[in-house]
Structures are given as C-alpha cells and as structure tokens.
Amino acid sequence: MTQNISWDQYFMSLAILISLRSKDPSSKVGAVLVRENKIIGTGYNGFPTGCDESQFPWERDVDGEGWLNTKYPYVIHAEANALLNTVTESNGCEIFVTLHPCNECAKLMIQGGVKRVTYLSDKHKGVDAFVAARKLLEVTGVEVRKMDAGDLNLPLIVDNFKTYS
Ligand SMILES: [Zn+2]
Fold first, then answer.
1. In terms of DSSP bridges, do strands 38-44 and 116-121 run parallel, antiparallel, or are they unpaired?
2. CA-to-CA distance for 110 and 118, rounded, in angstroms?
3. 103 C-alpha to center of ligand 1: Å?
4. Calpha distance 90→31 (Å, rounded)
5. Considering only CA atoms, which of 49, 51, 42 is closest in space to residue 18?
6. For 33, what's the count of Cα atoms within 13 Å in the CB-facing half-sphere?
7. Mean pLDDT of 129-139
8. How far is the centre of ligand 1, averaged over its atoms, from the C-alpha of 111 (Å)?
9. Among all residues, which ones are annotated catalytic?
10. DSSP 48
11. Ligand 1 center to residue 81 CA distance, Å?
12. Among 41, 141, 145, 156, which is most exposed with the fewest C-beta within 10 angstroms?
C-alpha cells in the first residue's frame, strides 16, 4: 500500500463519492470530467432540477404499468449531468465514471469532445445500449480504459476516512 493516491485513483475515488449523492436505490453512478488533471465538471444520476421522487418513480420496471412508470423517461445520467455542469469548455477533456457509459451518454460525450473514458464497472456489458456505446466510442476514436476495484488503493482511503470518525 502506497502512502498517496495516483491521479487515476483520485478521480475515480471522487466519482464513487459523487455517486453517493444519487437517490436511485438500484444504481448510483458518479462522473468526473477532467482536463489536464483539473476537474471541470461532476455529475450523478438523478431527476432534473425541480423533479423529485414525490412525482417521479425510481422503479426499473413495473409489471403491466409500462415505461411511464419507470425512472427511464425522467432520469439524467451522471455523464450528461457532468457535461451540463462544466465550468469551462469540455472539448479535449476526459471522463472518469463508475459505470461504463450507455449509448445516449456516449453520443453526448463524443459531441462534447471527450477524448478518453475511464470506467469502473461494466455490469451491463451485454445490453444493447452498452454494445452501441462501445461501437460509438470505438468508431470515433475515444480511448476507453477500465479500472478495477483493486486499482483504487481503497485501504489507504478507508484508513484515512476513519481518522475523522
Ligand atoms: Zn447514460
């Protein structure tokens, strides 16, 4: 265990922390947009400003009640929120995200000039939206890297969090 964290560990650990802001009970995703090792935007999955769970559902699918009664029509993904929250021009930046992007976010990131994607989980790997995302990123030359939990130096992070308890 080294005594400080690398840039990759720094940004991905932040993405995990940011994901904890999400109120989605089944999937919490965090994203950090970075250019030259400076953070230019962050985001997590959630409903648009002014929309909350008193009016919109977090359900993935409700038997027989259809798409309108799931979260899918209403939620903004972490990557999209990060792009919308940027404090400066995003062209040429990279993104650290806790889950591999879907096709909708891949399109937004390509148009936003994201040149590299680093992700942690690819639990939806076989799902069409993620197959399409990989194709979009590959064709447009966006570099895609996977980090694993073992790459994060979690023992150092956890030990240091404990010093504040
Ligand atoms: Zn997405």
1. unpaired
2. 14
3. 6
4. 14
5. 42
6. 27
7. 98
8. 14
9. 79
10. P
11. 10
12. 141
